[in-house]
Amino acid sequence: MASMNLFTTISVAADGRNPTSYFPRRRPNTATFAVNSPESTPEIELEFIGPKPESDGSYTMDKAKAISGEKLLRNIMLDNKIELYATYGKLMNCGGGGSCGTCIVEIIEGKDLLNERTNAELRYLKKKPESWRLACQTIVGNKENSGKVVVQRIPQWKK
């Protein structure tokens, strides 16, 4: 059986002396990633309707996908660079803490794919329609469901 040298000798001559240091030989860094097939990981498709109509009367549409139950709607929108806040909200939002109410969205389709309203939403959206949600409090999916959610951005701008 061949012997393995676990140490490498390095000579250092920084101050005139010739000390010898031993360093264990390093193994290459490796990482193992589990890859799930698309059918085993439920995904939620999201469509975001723009807040104001274009000159031709149509609304802009942004799309994104998310793994079910892993992210808040706010984070999905920010990660995909989808406008979330109106002017005031851009300056004065609470950063996702649920304490300002500036990240209001309207769920047009797919309400059953989201979590129930939180206490913060019940407080800030007391007099708003049931379809309105705070993006920072809305979890997209529940790790088991999949489907499509259609979101109206900044619904208070609608006519």
UniProtKB/TrEMBL annotation:
Signal peptide: none annotated. InterPro entries: 2Fe-2S_ferredoxin-like_sf, 2Fe-2S_ferredoxin-type, Adrenodoxin-like, Beta-grasp_dom_sf. One of its GO terms (biological process) is P450-containing electron transport chain. Pfam families: Fer2. Its cofactor is [2Fe-2S] cluster. One of its GO terms (molecular function) is electron transfer activity. Residues 92-140 form the 2Fe-2S ferredoxin-type domain. The keyword Lyase does not apply. Keywords: 2Fe-2S, Iron, Iron-sulfur, Metal-binding. It comes from the Eukaryota. GO terms for cellular component: mitochondrion. Belongs to the adrenodoxin/putidaredoxin family. This is 2Fe-2S ferredoxin-type domain-containing protein. It comes from Clitoria ternatea (Butterfly pea).
